[in-house]
Amino acid sequence: MVTLSAVLSGCVSSVLDVDKRAIQPIPAKLMGQMNAKQMKPSDPIVVRIFKQESELEIWKRNRSGRYALLKTYPMCRWSGKLGPKVRNGDRQAPEGFYTVSASMLNPQSQYYLSFNLGFPNRLESALGYTGEALMVHGACSSSGCYAMTDDGVAEIYAVAREALKGGQTTFQVQAFPFRMTAQNMAKYRNDPNIEFWKNLKEGYDIFEVSRRQPTISACGRRYVFDAQFEGGEPADPLAACPPMTTMEEPALLAKRDAEMRAMETAMTSSTPVAVHAYSDGGMHPSFRAILQRNGAKELAKKTSRTLVPISRPDAALADPHNPGE
Fold it and tell me: Can you give the pLDDT at residue 168?
């Protein structure tokens, strides 16, 4: 008969192991990539997340003062559907703009390592959205979180830790339903979240053009980017925006014009997708292939040192890249 302690020892690491997780250095290979891109471990970062593509990007400020892509990580699991998280228990992984401080890094996560996204943010709280402990973490299991492999989250955690130690007081996380191209916006034009996504795209475009993180404000029930308000930041995210000025770079205006033309072209040549056709979240195609070939147990072995079961493996096989299939 197997004792309870023996069972637990297979799933829960010792305190010593937990302590070591949080202080692992940035791997030498990744340090080499930083050096080649003229980045230091202490330089600030921005994290971008894309649900449909199941990818997480780390961008790091280089010697030029602009952010450049350091590495893209495949996401092992996210739950819910495209669209924002609204209430506790809806299984939705959040979408929006979040700010992560050192206190939100969790070295003792039950999912190897993690950091809290800070949902609900100021706008979401004002809108009445509810939920807590929405994380980026290890283990291929999600109920509203973004789940990486344990090795992946160890790298991400180490890069974030060093940036915060280097003087960046917080880092920005930008979570999107998909890469916000004109083609994708046209494809999802009938989705009930399209106005919300258009708002997210404003911040997305600023980063795409300028390679700097936009400043985030909230008024009029929406995000407002790179704005200076008369009388200071709006106190109530739900109230109408006070008089403001915004920074509109010529390159950004040109991109918006080009995107509008591209969207009009895409709408004439593409059929909008069925709304929320897939069942529950998704995973990167590389992990889906392992799941299809070898099953959930084998995928768990390859992605999680703590052997956390894969969440809803049948649902994970639904493909958000082809939502009508």
Answer: 95
Could you tell me which residues are beta bridge partners of residue 171? 100
Total residues belonging to the chain: 325
Task: Give pLDDT, residue 272.
Answer: 77
For 206, phi and psi rounded to 5 degrees? -60, -45
Q: What pTM was estimated for this model as a whole?
A: 0.89
Residues sharing a CB contact under 8 Å with residue 7, sequence separation 6 or more, in sequence order: none
3-class secondary-structure state, position 133? coil
Q: Strand locations in the chain, DSSP E?
A: 45-50, 55-61, 67-74, 77-78, 96-101, 105-106, 114-116, 135-137, 146-147, 170-176, 216-219, 222-225, 227-229, 244-246
Angle at alpha carbon of residue 225, lines to 223 and 226, rounded to 5°: 155
**Which residues is 72 bridged to in the sheet?**
57
**Quick one: which of 184, 7, 225, 275 has its CA closest to 97?**
225
According to the model, what pLDDT value does residue 152 have?
96
User: Which residues in the chain land under pLDDT 50?
Assistant: 1-16, 323-325
Active site residues: 137, 145
Predicted local confidence at residue 18, as pLDDT: 58
Strand, coil or helix: 156: helix
- How far apart are the C-alpha atoms of 25 and 224, rounded to whole Å? 37
- pLDDT of amino acid 301: 86
pLDDT given for residue 314 in this prediction: 74
Closest CA relative to residue 225, chosen from 252, 193, 261, 250: 252
Residue with token string 């600023």: 206
Catalogue all structural domains in the chain, each as residue range(s) with its CATH number. Answer: 12-178+279-310 (2.40.440.10)
For 191, what's the count of Cα atoms within 13 Å in the CB-facing half-sphere? Answer: 24
Establish whether the linkage from the previous residue to 120 is cis, with ω within 30° of 0: yes
3-state SS, one letter per residue, for 293-318? HHCHHHHHHHHCCCCCCCCCHHHHCC
